[in-house]
Amino acid sequence: MKIYRATDYQDMSRKAANIISAQIIMKPDCVLGLATGSTPIGIYKQLVEWYKKGDLDFSEVVSVNLDEYRGLPKTNDQSYDYFMRQHLFDLVNIDPANTYLPNGMAEDSEEECLRYERLIQSLGGVDLQLLGMGHNGHIGFNEPGEAFDTMTHCVKLQERTIEANKRFFASADDVPRQAYTMGIGTIMRARKILLVVSGEEKAETLRKALCGPVTPEVPASILQMHNDVTLVGDEAALSWMA
Ligand code: GLP
After folding, report:
1. Is pTM beyond 0.70 here?
2. In the prediction, which pLDDT does 225 show?
3. Which of 40, 62, 79, 90 is most buried, with most CB under 10 Å away?
4. How far apart are CA 47 and CA 25, in angstroms?
């Protein structure tokens, strides 16, 4: 695992955006696995800036997102579909037809999971998967205890995740109880993984994920088993590392 220490959130965002840019420049028609949450916002902002300067071209890029709430239409401003359009897709020259997320409104959840997994395969797999990490070590919406070999599936969100995500909703009651997520098996198939972590409150979980046993109790710990992971963390998240 390559580890880049960033001085702060902005520096972390710029370093991570550099890695994504390099991927796009080296392979203009790459498949990017994208993530939501507050951590990647600075990365998207930086990518948009470079696109506007003429340094980046998304015209051939394909994207697949990690996850989506079940039950929220794309028009809901808390859906991940909306988030991606707001922070990236509407601001760069990516072809909207090349941007994919699970469909939160699909009637048959099992069918939707199969469709999404097949779609990722038909695109040739993910070249670079961007990942944030939840406070409990979750990646995508793969909560502690989730088996490591799962493919895209529908999960019941844990109370801690609902609590953490309620800041974006009017109240905790409005946070959907289920979500679609690429499974850990799906994530591990990505050719490269870029993990970004910021903030002191995630430092201890990050330490467990990187140095502790590989266990479903800390979903991000599985990344120790992937052969091409880059972590960009800020000082606060990496404070425990000498
Ligand atoms: C959500 C997302 C994850 C994300 C996590 C951390 O639960 N499903 O993909 O990594 O939150 O979010 P944040 O970056 O806001 O801490």
Report:
1. yes
2. 98
3. 40
4. 12
